[in-house]
Amino acid sequence: MSGISRRKFLCATVVGGAMTTLGSVCGKGGKAWASGSFEGYPEGMGVLVDLTRCIGCRTCEAACNKEQKLPEPDQPFNDQSVFNTKRRTDESHYTVVNKYDAGQGPVYRKIQCNHCNEPGCLTSCFVNAYTKTKEGAVVYNSKVCVGCRTCMVACPFNIPAFKYSSATDPVIKKCIFCHETRLKNGLPPACVEACPQAVLTFGYRKDLVKLGHERIRNNAGRYVDQIYGETEVGGTGWMYLSGVPFEQVGFDTTLGNEPIISNVKDFLSTVPMVLAIWPALFSGIHLLATKGKDHGSGHGEDDHVKNEKEEPRP
Amino acid sequence: MKKFMNMGLLVDSHNKSADGKKWTLLEKLFLGLTPQQYIMQALLNPFNWLLALIFAVGLPILAGRFYFGLNWVTHSSNDYPWGLFLGFGLFAMVPLSSSGFQLGTACEVFGRHDLEPIERVGLLNGLLGYLFAVIYLLCDLGQPWRLPYPMAVAFGPASVLFLVAWHVATYLSVQVAEVSASFFEWIGWPLGKQGVRKMTLGLTVAGIILSTLHQGALGALFTYAPGKVHPLWYSASFQWLHFFVSSLPGGLCMVITVTTIARKTMEWRCDERFKSTLDKLTITLAKGATMGLATYLTIKLIGVAHDNEWSYFATGWGAWFIFEMGVGVILPLILFVYAIPRNAFAIARLAAFFTVFGVVLNRVNTAMICFNWKLPYREIPHWREVVIAVMIYAIYIVVYRFILYRLPILYQWKEEPVLEAVAVPSSNGRAPAYREALSPAASYREAVEEPVAISSYAATGLGADESGRGGL
């Protein structure tokens, strides 16, 4: 191997090495986060929502609106006509209650951020705007949000909403478990405190799982034998008990038990490999493909003369 | 344009005429015409009037998007966070830009120098596709001024989008460097061109890595939404491969499409080398695209089989899937297989158009039409969103045309025998006899490049190669 081709190979290798280093920055990070599974902080808090107790009074919505200083709603919170449509969370409603007809009378279901153990929004965010706090809340840092809305795509429960109305400061709006004002200080969120029917039970997540199963066991026939959120997408901080099958009251029961990030791990784990292998692979192919051809092995004029002969002439 | 160009004013070298008088930059910009002539030819082109109409409507609406916010131009949907700007602009522009790395790889890594007449179109197509994908992205982001945040302020390294951001940014720089060679020729700065040339192999290999990863990463973005994308368009294991593999025929066929249009609409700008080889090279690209399409079809079917999604074929979604695959993959595949052995260039070009259509449809389906398939409603984009998307595409066409008119992309820059350049020692003292046979242009080139070529890895082959051709 002559000097030039050695140099050629070295250059390619150096470029490759640089790329690999760049890659390992991304790759390692990705790997560290993607490997293993996170079951939630041991001291994480949660809320158990008992749909059989909810009467659709919307007190929780009003409490949330006040606590989070959200704009005045178009219709007052005692207006029952909102139940005519299925609503979702948006930039001025962090929680909404929907009404479902599931055979024996109406069933009301409160929705808000479920505060996943391993949140899709968090793992999909490229500026790391989301944090799962040790208290169990999934909070959001609007100071770094670029507004790409990938978290909205990644949320299996369709919770994060975007402040489309703002031209200068459009950010994500979602329930943060009243983290700043309450949860941090050991207080339950505003909606839980306001609920007149004890639909919402606040506590350590691990205790709530036990409590939920006890309620199912002690009230034969009242509940479907499942706590929604105990295992769904890796487990959620907010969990549900229901008297009717969950899919009849708007729950997606096809989500599976793997956290969202598990779907992405296949790809993330190929990234450092591509970064590490491609440079040598393609530099090698280059050397193989062009050996003795026009790129030559660098024998100066001999090579040029050869090229002159080999060059196809039109 | 053709009429004006027939007046013999074509800028294709630094010199106006044999007496060594140089073009000024302004003259180069006006293509050698006087400003009056330039404006005349622009006004005579009806396509420019169509563009003017699009800009007249689109620019105020674009300004409104940044003044009033996204809810003025879109339906502000929380269920469909990504509309046309990303569904079409980002997800469809990027796969059609894979031509840059493919032609770069074929020429520089695999040594297929017969592809050189279209290499630069491929590189430019890649650069502009990415650039405008980013411009679409800037329209879509809530806070576009924070786009550099993932590079500098806050890092979310577990995120696929983090990879996309880094790779698109890096790859854009790589592509700027690759395309800058033709800019340096045009502006008359051979040192810059030499500098780029020294990096060619490194840039090309970096291009392969970055392209593999982020073409795939765009697909992997949808693996965050396993329940939202319809199963026929979703595959947890293969999504990134589906996106990567379909981008390969997509990029090649985009080059066929662009060269077809360029050949038709700006023949005056294409040189003999380009015109005489284009048909043959179209078939070469078609061969590559055929392999890509066949592989893509296979892995799409494997994806369906792997997740056992056959039952969806009986639904309306299945019919739409069959339409997408039928018109966008199987039909062009059949047309290519018919056209290639028969050298039926027109049919190959038609097939390329269907392939481009198929790739765009696939991305729009995945990101918008078949997204949220469980929700009861489909979102139809707001008319203002459509206007902005069309207008940005119009800007893309204008920029594309502007560059093709000027830079040596469709033609080769004629180097002149400049005296000061020859003053550089023309060889290491062992000037071989063959060089005397070369034209002055070629020996100039050789003279400039030789000192570099001796010590550099990339320039050697290319220098020799081009001087060889220059002498013909």
Oligomeric state, counting identical vs distinct chains: heterodimer
Count of folded domains of chain B: 3
**CATH homologous superfamily placement of the largest domain in chain B:** Formate dehydrogenase/DMSO reductase domain
Principal-axis shape of chain A equals globular
What characteristic shape of chain B results from the CA principal axes? globular
Helix count from the secondary structure assignment of chain B: 20
Per CATH, what is the topology of the largest domain in chain A? Answer: Alpha-Beta Plaits
* Content of β-strand of chain B: under 5%
The second-level CATH architecture of the largest domain in chain A is 2-Layer Sandwich
Q: List unreliable stretches of 5+ residues of chain B.
A: 418-472
Mean pLDDT of chain A: 83
Beta fraction of chain A: 5-15%
- In what order do the strands lie side by side in the largest sheet of chain A? 8-1-9
| Total of domains of chain A | 2
| Number of discrete helical segments of chain A | 8
Question: How would you portray this structure in words?
Answer:
The complex is a heterodimer of chains A (314) and B (472). Chain A has 314 residues and is α+β, with helices and mostly antiparallel strands. Chain A has 8 helices and 9 strands. In chain A, strands 8-1-9 form a 3-stranded mixed sheet. The radius of gyration of chain A is 28 Å and the shape is globular. In chain A, 47% of the residues are buried. Chain B is mostly helical and 472 residues long. Chain B has 3 domains: 2-42, no CATH class; 50-406, Formate dehydrogenase/DMSO reductase domain (Formate dehydrogenase/DMSO reductase fold), CATH 1.20.1630.10; 421-470, no CATH class. Chain B has 20 helices and no strands. At the A-B interface, helix 1, helix 3, helix 4, strand 6 and helix 7 of A face helix 4, helix 7, helix 10, helix 12 and helix 20 of B.
Describe the structure in brief.
The complex is a heterodimer of chains A (314) and B (472). Chain A is of the alpha+beta class and 314 residues long.
